């Protein structure tokens, strides 16, 4: 018998439990006798059988379950991952704001654009002290992209394929693998004035991005292409469509290539969850655009089908734009299961 209850009247249970101290005996409250309002004299004392020594095999099994109970074998059951993209408009000038935002928002992965510094000038020590690994593709004074991650950053690619053949030395693209997800931080050319050489460069860059997205899709790996696309996909993404219709961000050619990119099978995370107009990620410094709500939605997160299957949430975090010495952009984030 491994354990049980004895009906006793002031007597100790027999056997190996006879010498067990009273505080080792688990007592259940005695029921009231029907109609008497008083408990019966007999008490039910419950005891637990003494534990037998665990065998070596039992110890091994118990140890395994203790180690794995908080680490499910199915990665889809792990904690969600939050990936944010943020055009900081000079990482050194905005470092205090960036560190404060990282501390409050606590994203797992951050895709930065317009860091505007060379690799050796990037504030890696400060960001590592905040708990992030860093991968940087910088350029003096202009452009520049980076990836921050709480988990290890692996297999880093700097530059969009095709840059060598075009002689493109601008630091606008960095890609890496983090926790089984391929992520890219991109800073697509602005393209103004349009038409013109800068606009032609923008369109060529977008075609190269489309070609590379096809390559990534063929791997069947979950991936996220995030960054400042410098494209307002529709009139719902600009506060005044008429005044912006000839700008490189809103021209039909830019929008057509953005649609072509999405039509490869990518999901634009924000629009998938928020169809309403008037949500923006950029407000110009001039003309009181922030105060007047005169914004543009030009920062996007595009998900491969494998990543879109894991889409939980996506939103724009406007709070950083309200700070002193803020970037003219604000972060947008996506959460994947």
From TrEMBL:
GO terms for molecular function: DNA binding; double-stranded DNA 3'-5' DNA exonuclease activity; endonuclease activity; metal ion binding. It comes from the Bacteria. Probably binds two magnesium or manganese ions per subunit. Residues 1-43 are annotated as: Disordered. Residues 28-39 have a biased composition (Low complexity). Its EC number is 3.1.11.2. This is Exodeoxyribonuclease III. The gene is xth.
């Amino acid at each position: 018998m491994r354990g049980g209850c004895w009906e006793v009247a002031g007597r100790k249970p027999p056997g190996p439990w006879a010498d067990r101290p009273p505080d080792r005996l688990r007592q259940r409250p005695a029921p009231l006798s029907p109609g008497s309002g008083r408990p019966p004299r007999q008490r039910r004392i419950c005891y637990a059988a003494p534990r037998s020594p665990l065998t070596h095999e039992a110890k091994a099994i118990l140890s395994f379950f203790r180690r794995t109970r908080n680490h499910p074998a199915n990665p889809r059951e792990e904690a969600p991952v939050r990936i944010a993209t943020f055009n900081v408009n000079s990482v050194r000038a905005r470092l205090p704001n960036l560190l404060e935002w990282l501390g409050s928002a606590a994203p797992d992965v951050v895709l930065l654009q317009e860091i505007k510094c060379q690799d050796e000038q990037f504030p890696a020590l400060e960001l590592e002290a905040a708990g992030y690994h860093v991968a940087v593709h910088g350029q003096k004074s202009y452009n520049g992209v980076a990836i921050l991650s709480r988990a290890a950053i692996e297999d880093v690619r700097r530059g969009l394929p095709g840059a060598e053949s075009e002689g493109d030395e601008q630091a606008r693209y960095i890609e890496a693998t983090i926790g089984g997800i391929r992520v890219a931080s991109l800073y697509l050319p602005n393209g103004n004035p349009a038409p013109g050489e800068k606009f032609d460069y923008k369109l060529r860059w977008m075609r190269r991005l489309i070609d590379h997205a096809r390559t990534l899709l063929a791997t069947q790996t979950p991936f996220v292409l995030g960054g400042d696309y410098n494209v307002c996909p529709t009139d719902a993404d600009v506060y005044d469509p008429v005044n912006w219709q000839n700008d490189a961000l809103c021209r039909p050619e830019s929008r057509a290539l953005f649609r072509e990119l999405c039509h490869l099978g990518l999901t634009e995370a924000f629009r998938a969850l928020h169809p309403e107009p008037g949500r923006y990620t950029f407000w110009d410094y001039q003309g009181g655009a922030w105060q007047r709500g005169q914004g543009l939605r030009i920062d996007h997160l595009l998900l491969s089908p494998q990543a879109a299957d894991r889409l939980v949430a996506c939103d724009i975090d406007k709070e950083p734009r309200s700070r002193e010495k803020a970037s003219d952009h604000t972060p947008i984030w996506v959460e994947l299961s």
